[in-house]
Amino acid sequence: MRDYKFVTRIYNLRKGKGLSQSELGELVGVTNKAVSKWENGEAKPAISQLVKLSKVFDVSMDEIINTNQEKEKQITKIVITGGPCAGKSTALSWIQAEYAKKGYAVIFVPESATELILAGISSNTVNSDIEFQTALLKNQLTKEKLFEEVARKMANEKVLIVCDRGAMDGKAYIKPFEYEQMLKYLGLSEVELRDNYDAVFHLVTTAVGAKEYYTLENNKARYESIDDAIKSDKRTLDA
After folding, report:
1. For residues 156-165, b (16+ Cβ closer than 10 Å) or e, as one string?
2. HEC string for 115-179
3. Is the pTM for the entire model greater than 0.70?
4. CB 19, CB 27: distance < 8 Å
5. pLDDT tens for residues 168-224?
6. d(CA 165, CA 84)
7. Which of 82-86, 151-155, 167-171 has the highest mean pLDDT?
């Protein structure tokens, strides 16, 4: 689980000094990608790097790593996924209403596959399934990073980021060796993608046990038959 308190502190200290990620990286002796990972909660600086950061920011190391400051922002990121026609829209509406009552600001990362398909980008319009899934994953990660940056700047102390499908859903739609090839090309790992979330919730398609409710009418990007929906649901759950 990522330490959002540390993430927020590093981000605010860098912004307070008016430094870009690349500029901070040069001062500390790391790449801008390393700084990005610190600010995304994907990694933490080594002790030697913390020493340099304390000098750059002109604060003590305790101030950088302290996680007991009052009123620190609490950011939680979850995924709602599942088979076609599984009730995600209903679940998202429920989450919005219930967590608003609990004092959360709730923001939603829209489903990348639907966005791309409705924009005319699909496995049928590009060269291959892996090319489409690569574009989809890039889009997903870019959106999540943007939403996390926005969440850190929101006034609410508690923010819930809800992803309509997550970064690992694409594993259900290409072969295992293609998925590994894609991650290698993007410099990612399954563990890294998995640990990017605090929780993942899988909703079972209505094609399993409630076929009379299965429909293609409420999603223009949905095309699966009932049998295909059942297979897609299992692949997604496995992923």
Report:
1. eeebbbbbbb
2. HHHHCCCCCCCCCCHHHHHHHHHHHHHHHHHHHHHHHHHCCCCEEEEEEECCCCHHHHCCCHHHH
3. no
4. yes
5. 999 999 999 999 999 999 999 998 898 889 999 998 888 776 777 676 666 655 567
6. 11
7. 167-171
